[in-house]
């Protein structure tokens, strides 16, 4: 049977307090005084364009070099006139997309339309697709998608 004996090596040594810490009671250093900096002026914005953009022309996309989808101004105007009572209880916008809350859907649709062709969803054609699907769902007598 093998028995190991414990060797007493004296008191436990620690690295606390570190040697660079001054001996004595711990005191917090005085906070550094911050000198006031000169006031920063607001950025200078370019003047607003005098004439509004034409809504029927394609608008170039922010990146990629290809033009943004054409803005359907007539469909946008038609969608702004819709009320929640004009939509059915459960509107199937496209496969996999069912509108349950008509009031909220129209509020988001109006917000996207009011952002105009420069809006983020319009730049990638999402709002144009929503408008065409909405027209096709509410007026199903046309075969091909609406193109302005």
Compile the SSE list and pairings.
Blueprint (H helix, E strand, L loop, with lengths): L72 H8 L10 E4 L2 E3 L2 H14 L4 H4 L2 H13 L10
Antiparallel strand pairs: 1-2
* Unreliable stretches: none
Element pattern in H and E: HEEHHH
Shape: elongated
Total of helices = 4
Strand composition percent: under 5%
Number of strands: 2
SS-based class: mainly alpha
Radius of gyration: 34 Å
What topology, given as strand order, has the largest sheet?
Answer: 1-2
Name the helicity range.
25-40%
The termini sit apart by 96 Å
* Quaternary structure of the protein: single chain
Main beta sheet: strand number and arrangement? Answer: 2 strands, antiparallel
- Provide the residue-averaged pLDDT: 75
Brief summary of the model shown:
This protein is mostly helical. The chain has helices spanning 73-80, 102-115, 120-123, 126-138; strands at residues 91-94, 97-99.
Considering the chains and any ligands shown, give keywords for the structure:
148 residues
Q: Can you describe what's shown?
A:
- The radius of gyration is 34 Å and the shape is elongated.
- It contains 4 helices and 2 strands.
- Helix content is 26%, strand content 5%.
- It has 148 residues and is mainly α.
- Strands 1-2 form a two-stranded antiparallel sheet.
- The model has no long low-confidence stretch (mean pLDDT 75).
- Strand 1 and strand 2 form a beta hairpin.
């Amino acid at each position: 049977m093998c028995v190991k004996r414990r060797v007493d090596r004296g008191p436990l040594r620690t690295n606390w307090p570190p040697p660079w810490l001054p001996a004595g009671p711990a005191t917090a250093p005085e906070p550094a005084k911050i000198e006031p900096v000169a006031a920063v002026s607001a950025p200078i914005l370019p003047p607003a364009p005098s004439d509004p953009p034409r809504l029927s022309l394609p608008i170039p996309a922010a990146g990629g070099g290809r033009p943004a989808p054409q803005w359907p101004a007539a469909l946008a105007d038609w969608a702004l006139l819709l009320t929640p009572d004009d939509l059915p209880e459960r509107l199937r916008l496209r496969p996999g997309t069912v509108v349950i809350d008509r009031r909220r859907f129209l509020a988001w649709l109006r917000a996207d339309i009011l952002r105009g062709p420069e809006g983020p969803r319009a730049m990638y054609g999402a709002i144009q697709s929503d408008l065409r699907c909405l027209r096709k769902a509410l007026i199903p007598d046309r075969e091909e998608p609406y193109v302005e």
